[in-house]
Amino acid sequence: MNINKMVACCPWRYSQKIFLQVVYPVGRKYMSAPSAARLKLVSSPELKAVFSIDDVKLPPWLDGMCLAEYLPNLEEYLGKQVLEAVSLIEVRRHFIEALSSPFGRPVEADAVFCRKATFLAASGVFTFLKQKKYRVTEMLGSNCKIWDLSSTLEVHLLIPTQFPKQQPAIMLQSSQHFNSQMAPMKSRVMSDYPWSPRWEPSLMAERICEFLADEALNFKRQCSEGQVQ
């Protein structure tokens, strides 16, 4: 299975592979049936962008089994897991597109794996890229909502590979408020908002927008009081 060819516009220079590490226990006494081997999957770091081996539950190693018996079933099992992980790229892409309805088009997004996206949201007296107003307008396009850039903040979304089973993590960032190291103030990473993997992407986006309507006000207050980092 060539994972690189399965991902459109794949940026990987080298072929992505998954390896099985097998450790056979050695005992001092003779045993008619060998003990079960200790198994661990190893992969290249880049593969985590689309498929995490940490989420894989390996098939059981039965008593008396040898590696030649185990590998075919494992290869078939991993093949199905990888195919499902690649198909979820499009699911995440549709979700990001659905977020464009309440927020406008993203100012930044992961176009290959669809794991990250950044939007603008209006709230109070926040300022986002005040000195780059025309550039932001160009990036957002002519069909999106027109934001008052004197009252916006950044909404960062990190979308897990297991989406929609796992919900995105959300973080707010102000470019008007800075901490003692002169870095923009950021909210906590939030994943405690209403969510169901059975919802349509449009409803997911709507519920996130409703949640952020109140959370943005709390974030504004915390920024003014210097309570966030």
TrEMBL record:
Q: Where in the cell is it found?
A: Cytoplasm; Nucleus
Q: Where the protein is mainly located, per its record?
A: cytoplasm
Quote the InterPro entries the UniProt record gives.
BRE
The reply on keyword DNA repair is: yes
BP GO terms, sorted: cell division; chromatin organization; double-strand break repair
According to the lineage, what is the superkingdom? Eukaryota
Q: Which keywords accompany this UniProt record?
A: Apoptosis, Cell cycle, Cell division, Chromatin regulator, Cytoplasm, DNA damage, DNA repair, Mitosis, Nucleus, Repeat, Ubl conjugation pathway
Report the Pfam families cross-referenced here.
BRE
The UniProt entry's GO CC annotations, sorted and at most eight, read: BRISC complex; cytoplasm
Family indicated by similarity: Belongs to the BABAM2 family.
The protein in question is named BRISC and BRCA1-A complex member 2
Supply the source organism for this entry. Glycine soja (Wild soybean)
